Amino acid sequence: MNEEVEVLLNWYDKNKREFPWRKDKDPYHVWISEIMLQQTRIEAVIEYYKRFLKEIPSIQKLSIIEEDKLLKLWEGLGYYSRARNLKKAAKKIMEEYHGVFPEEYEDIIKLPGIGEYTAGAISSICFQKKEVCIDGNVMRVYVRLNNSNMDVQDKKEKKKVAREIKRILPKETGDFNQALMELGETICIPNGMPKCSICPLERFCEAHKKGKESSIPEKKGKKEKKEEEYTIFLIQYKNLFAIRKRDSGLLKNMWEFPNKKGILKTQEIKKIFSTQEVEKGIKNIHIFTHKKWKMNSFLIKVSKKNEEYTWVTLNDLEKGYALPTAFKPFFKYLKEKYPQ
Ligand code: SF4
User: Fold this and answer.
1) What is the DSSP track for 290-324?
2) What is the pLDDT of residues 275-292, one digit of tens each?
3) Residues whose CB falls within 8 Å of the CB of residue 28, separated by 6 or more in sequence, listed in order
4) Is residue 112 within 8 Å of residue 137, measured between CB atoms?
5) What whole-number distance in Å separates Cα of residue 165 and Cα of residue 161?
6) Cβ contacts of residue 154 below 8 Å, gap of 6+?
7) Where are the alpha helices (DSSP H) in 221-308?
């Protein structure tokens, strides 16, 4: 085994953080945690993970879970297609693999919602297959160790790094992949100074030797997010509020307060809803990966229920309906205005 690999594995063995999904190597557990961890901070995932497994302890249960229940369990984590893909993949495992999680990378990667990184993680951690998982953390550690100015976002470069790392994989592939990721998450961190003085690979690191560790990888200019404006209608009939299910686009099948693209004026809203009881509510800005929503709300009291909407009390809304994070501040605003 190459010396750097041995040092890294020993460091991981002594320093790895304890997470509920590291208690065993059950592929169902590793799979759920890896999907939750995409785009989400570890600290935020822990409670979701525990709750999810308590409610849905097996692939079989996941394959038949009601979508509303699934989305409620995912509420707040964002990127809801992840949850839907979990269910689709569970169905496929039940139908094609008799409910047993497949072991081979080529089979795992064909499951809905699983890409190269996750397939590499599951096959190496749970089945010790000789596969790598390359994410932003691993790319950062790699370019620093090699003092390379490669573009860490470039897919071809990622493939090149995957080939290089595959050549030095030890038999403990799962631990090795996790060790590299752990190093990137805790020591060789992005933005600002990596913690080289406590890094197990300090003496092997070319960027550190040349004092270039904080300027590698080079930062590329970020794309501007597309901005969209929405008017949010908080429509109230007695103690009930109108919600509806999104039928397409971002956040499909999630519940939301009715809304319209663009920023409307009070007078326009009075006309649309045939009521004089319109008051300005709160504003919210929600940032997605590629988009920014600027949302402006109005509280609208109506004397008739429009049957096109679902009408719920605030308590029912809280307990039974998955509301995306973008709409949560409006719910909070209503809860404070109308404590029940
Ligand atoms: S020595 Fe510093 S730059 Fe090099 S791998 Fe370790 S933390 Fe990263």
Assistant:
1) SEEEEEEEEEEE-SS--TTSEEE-HHHHHHH----
2) 999 999 999 999 887 889
3) 58, 59, 101
4) no
5) 6
6) none
7) 266-273
Nearest CA to ligand 1 atom 2: 196
More confident residue, 100 or 2: 100
Q: Name all contacts of 244-248 with Cβ < 8 Å and 24+ positions apart.
A: 244/308, 244/309, 244/310, 245/310
Residue 309 falls inside a structural domain: yes
Closest CA to 125 of 38, 195, 26, 216: 26
Q: Which of 215, 240, 261 is the last residue of a domain?
A: 215
pLDDT single digits (tens) 144-177: 999 999 999 899 999 999 999 999 999 999 999 9
Of 199, 210, 214, 215, the residue with max ligand 1 atoms within 8 A of its CB, to mutate for a pocket test, comes to 199
> Model-level pTM greater than 0.85?
no
Provide the pairing of β-strand 259-261 with 278-287.
unpaired
Same domain as 238, residue 202: no
